[in-house]
Amino acid sequence: MSSSSEVLPDDFPDAINRVVFDQETISRRVGELADTISQDYSGKNTVVVGILQGAYAFTCDLINELDFPVSPEFIRISRYQKPFTGEVEIVEDVQQDITGQHVLLVEDIVDTGLTLNFLVQILLDRNPASLAVCALLDRSELRLVDIPIKYVGFQVNDEFLIGYGLDFRGSYRDLPFVATMNPQSVVPTNLSA
Amino acid sequence: MSMNSWTAPRFEHPSEQELARFLDFFTVEWRYESVCFPLKWDEEGRVIRSITPDFYLPQFELFVEITTMKQRLVNKKNQKIRQLRELYPDIRIKVLYGRDYRKLLFKFGVLQ
How far is B5 from chain A (nearest CA, A)? Predict the structure, then answer.
């Protein structure tokens, strides 16, 4: 993982350990992705779908940089939470009919690929003209499902990240940068045999 | 197979049960310890070493092995995985090491 800044502002919480991608680096990379996507989707009926909550900021920033008009759509799935039973379901769906349209699905970070796999299957069933994935961060070490990611912002390693949409227990999503967590702020849990 | 099925297996380790729940949530079909791969045979052709990956995900044609054990045992497991890849190059297997696996559970709120 490349580090864009080691300097942490004084007024940020102790939970933040190190800035990995600062605001400027993210903004520049989002602009590069938007340029490529603008070329690829020029003249096509395109729907950009952000996956909530994590990809909200990324989706909005990306759309602002595209050189064609597009309204953001968002989709949200249920969380995996206690008592950890039941199945994933869509709790907030896209408003448009995507049949025959070119869909760009935007995610904050892809690790196992299970969330993406679920959503890709759901959206493909609606017969879009095409479906591609754009992810700000790609953490392939945990990948179980090989979903093709056409546009990747940054490759990252296995550090736990927060900021720019990524949360820790619902907090830190609104940070303008991506940072690692301070290990001392995370209570270890022993799962070893 | 799913955790809700009457045939839900007896897992050898809580981490395996947790992964099964996790896969169920994402509606990913799984089979537990469904295939045993022979790795070594004696002179009479009897299998003297084998490996049975924890999970098989038929939808992705992928075996998954969870390794949350001590380093000494991890080394032994890694050796078996290497052999498996050598003898069965077409087999796709993903090893989730303890640290990776804990991060995964942590991300999804299973570990607090």
Answer: 12
- A88 part of a folded domain: no
pLDDT at A84 (0 to 100): 64
B85 min Cα distance to partner chain A (Å)? 17
Q: Count up the domains in chain A and report the number.
A: 1
Residue B41 located in a structural domain? yes
Instruction: Judge if the upstream peptide bond of residue A53 is cis by omega within 30 degrees of 0.
Output: yes
Amino acid sitting at position B49: R
Look at residue A65 and tell me if it is in a domain: yes
pLDDT beyond 50 at A98: yes
Tally of structural domains, chain B: 1
Q: Is residue A38 part of a domain?
A: yes
pLDDT tens for each residue of A129-180: 999 999 999 988 888 888 899 999 999 987 788 889 888 877 788 888 898 8
- Within a domain: A193: no
Give DSSP secondary structure letters for A6-38: ----TTS-TTEEEEEE-HHHHHHHHHHHHHHHH
Across A52-129, the runs of DSSP E, i.e. the strands, are 72-77, 90-92, 102-110
CATH number of residue B59's parent domain:
3.40.960
Residue A60's SS3 state is helix
Domain boundaries, position A119: 16-78+93-184
Q: Cβ(A90)–Cβ(A77) under 8 Å?
A: yes
- State pTM to two decimals: 0.80
Contact residues, chain B to chain A, C-beta under 8 Å: 3-4, 13-15, 18, 21-28, 57, 60, 62, 64, 68-70, 94, 96, 98-112
Its domain, for residue B39, covers 15-107
Contacting B with CB below 8 Å, chain A residues are: 79-82, 84-88, 111-112, 114-115, 117-118, 141-146, 158, 160, 169, 186-187, 189, 191-193
How many C-beta atoms surround the C-beta of residue A37 within 10 A? Answer: 25
